[in-house]
């Protein structure tokens, strides 16, 4: 079967100076929408959620994920979460930085300025105006709920798979 998307991996630094791993699956065609992955505890985007990213990209969606601090290929003590808001902040910074790039680089956080090359930025201009969805699995569902609560008008919806919530 022919692959219908490109896969990229990029490292960046969060506001606390830790190295975070991110990945993205970008369809060759104009995307139907943008999906931002939030993985569960002790999981990661690059491996655990890879099949999900591939399926969604093959279906025509641009998919973006980041491994939380202490998870997957990101820096930090393995699976240590000292402050849940740090995870949410990192996801918000990364996801909104992607959207800022798509919106002609407005409001880009300087720590993410090297996230995409010039050719990637030109390619992503066709992503402007697309719907933005959060996708969270387990603890990632909680991350999605907090992200959506912080800025409900920014997101067009959320997909929650067995979300960790009360």
From TrEMBL:
Leader sequence residues: none
PANTHER family linked to this entry: PHOSPHOLIPASE-RELATED
Domain Serine aminopeptidase S33: 30-99, 117-166
Protein's name according to its UniProt entry: Caffeoylshikimate esterase
Entry-linked Pfam families: Hydrolase_4
Gene3D superfamilies membership: alpha/beta hydrolase (3.40.50.1820)
